[in-house]
Amino acid sequence: MHPGIAANQQRLFLAFVAELRPHVRRDSALPRRIKELLARQRAIGSRDRKLYRELIYTWLRFLPWTDPLLDSDPVTAAKVIAWLAPELKPTSPYRAAFCADWPAVPATLAEKAEFLTSQVSGLKFQVSELLPSWFADHCPAAFTSPHLDALNARANVWVRLQCIDRNLVFDEFRGKQWTWETAPDFPDALCLPPNAEVANTDAYRRGFIEIQDLGSQLVLATAPIPPGGRWLDACAGAGGKSLQLARLLGDHGHVDATDIRLEILEELRDRAQRARLTNVRITNSPDAAYDGVLVDAPCSGSGTWRRQPHLKWYVKPETIASFTRTQLEILTTQAPRVKPGGLLIYATCSMSRHENHDVVAAFLQAQPDFKPEPAADTHGGTFDGLGTTLLPGTRNTDGFYAATLRRST
Ligand SMILES: C[S@@+](CC[C@H](N)C(=O)[O-])C[C@H]1O[C@@H](n2cnc3c(N)ncnc32)[C@H](O)[C@@H]1O
């Protein structure tokens, strides 16, 4: 590559950073802002768009390591970001233009921090800075190995198979020369490399697969859900878990799906059609009694920080406190819809004990009719007496929490 081209790309990247920087700690919808910013650049092609996206997300992931440099020495900041960017291959011309005098990126964060400290004078790069320090009170284990490394890596793509003839999916993936791994205890889950564009496959268009992180898939697997029941998915959103639940319950079972945002349920309608599921109903007036109610509650999303690194810097302790109030409110509203003997599953994609254990404990104290059930299977997570937490490093997934509560009377 002509050195002038790489220098221009670096200048443009730094201009994007300058435009985004004032919004980083303030905008929960930063990914949309990034998408719109890149879409406005009519002169750049799709390969460059991918490069800038990769650099921007790496910058957000490693924000505390590059923030001080962006003011004092932006060119070195851009070099550090290019070096750290996980998807820039050693052969990438952009990387080669700036990082040829640095070695290949080591595997661990500790080694990365040590190398950068030795190269960039006046700065000490610390691994623990890559999560907000206040979060240690919410989840001390997130600051330890292997979770800290996993939380700062780029997420793989997980899909859930929802077809009888899996070879239709495997043949297409092989044709694209994608390799994948399966989860031994969860044969419906396949893990593909981060850059696999799964949404552009026939398998996806024909409803043979759904994109769903293994962490999200395992939530329902922690509970003893017998086939054939009538369930309510009370926070269904775009319906990732509604679809999974509908398959789990089978033809004799049924899922009613609702959400405070009715418009998002349209996405679920399309996905259910694509998956040829006829046992999912979208409703804004759920019934009075169900065999089970799933509350996949709105949360800080700290379990998804590796895919949404901006949230590490946007979420504050006050944000979490506000979520805990909403979570308890939703549980309290939905609890009467569980039949005696039925199940209430509370789930979040948060690693914060305040949003998880503490919300369930407060709920149980106010609702003596409900008792915690031991996890049917923790799938590698940790059961705390009320619910199961799976942290990202354990199985290369998003983090989640799930508690199963049974109503006695
Ligand atoms: C974590 S997301 C659900 C994700 C979804 N279950 C899935 O697996 O794809 C939480 C959802 O809760 C919804 N929500 C927020 N407040 C709510 C409330 N008071 N009642 C019902 N849903 C609510 C949000 O609109 C959001 O779609």
TrEMBL record:
Q: Where does S-adenosyl-L-methionine bind?
A: 259, 296
GO annotation terms (biological process): rRNA base methylation
Q: Which GO molecular function, any one, fits this protein according to its record? A: rRNA (cytosine-C5-)-methyltransferase activity
> Where is the SAM-dependent MTase RsmB/NOP-type domain positioned along the sequence?
145-408
- The protein's superkingdom reads Bacteria
Which InterPro entries does the UniProt record give? MeTrfase_RsmB-F_NOP2_cat, MeTrfase_RsmB-F_NOP2_dom, RCMT, SAM-dependent_MTases_sf
- Tell me which EC number(s) this protein carries: 2.1.1.176
Q: Which residues form a coiled coil?
A: 255-285
Task: Provide one Gene Ontology cellular component.
Answer: cytosol
User: Could you say which protein family the record assigns here?
Assistant: Belongs to the class I-like SAM-binding methyltransferase superfamily. RsmB/NOP family.
Q: What is this protein called?
A: Ribosomal RNA small subunit methyltransferase B
The UniProt gene name for this protein comes to rsmB_3
